[in-house]
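Researcher: Here's my situation. A collaborator sent me these components and asked whether they could plausibly form a single complex. I don't have experimental data yet, so a predicted model of the whole assembly would be a useful starting point for our discussion.
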Amino acid sequence: MARFIDVHDGFVGVTKDQLAAAHDADAAIEDEEGVHIEHAWLDPQSGKVFCLSTGPSKEALMRIHERAGHPTDQVYEVSIEV
Amino acid sequence: MARFIDVHDGFVGVTKDQLAAAHDADAAIEDEEGVHIEHAWLDPQSGKVFCLSTGPSKEALMRIHERAGHPTDQVYEVSIEV
């Protein structure tokens, strides 16, 4: 499995409950693509969200995020970590 | 303490050892600003690095990264996470 960080824009002023709802929307369908979105961090000032995920491919992760209602093409395979 | 994700560009083709060396350069001085850089993820294809940190302020984190030789102004306080 590969590891990914993806970035979403446009979440200015979003609350914890709203972020959790978006995360749950991913979680409800992620198994269908063998994806697991482990964690999401939000800066409500800039509206940026960073998600840490594992999955078979960038495209699989993008399909899950799109179907869950928050598409992004800013998906990076983070093959190295320390 | 606040939580931050910061983003660096320009690490195309960087190896795990090189990323570890950059991370160590931060670690060697981070205590001086009360910062702790917990984790760094690298996509060597795009050259993007994402760091997860805690610290007293965005500026303190930026000073550590600058002194360690890899400045960035893409620093986001991630006050919400799920």
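Model: Some features of this prediction you could bring to your collaborator: Chain B has two helices and five strands. Residues 2-77 of chain B form a domain with the Alpha-Beta Plaits fold (CATH 3.30.70.3090).
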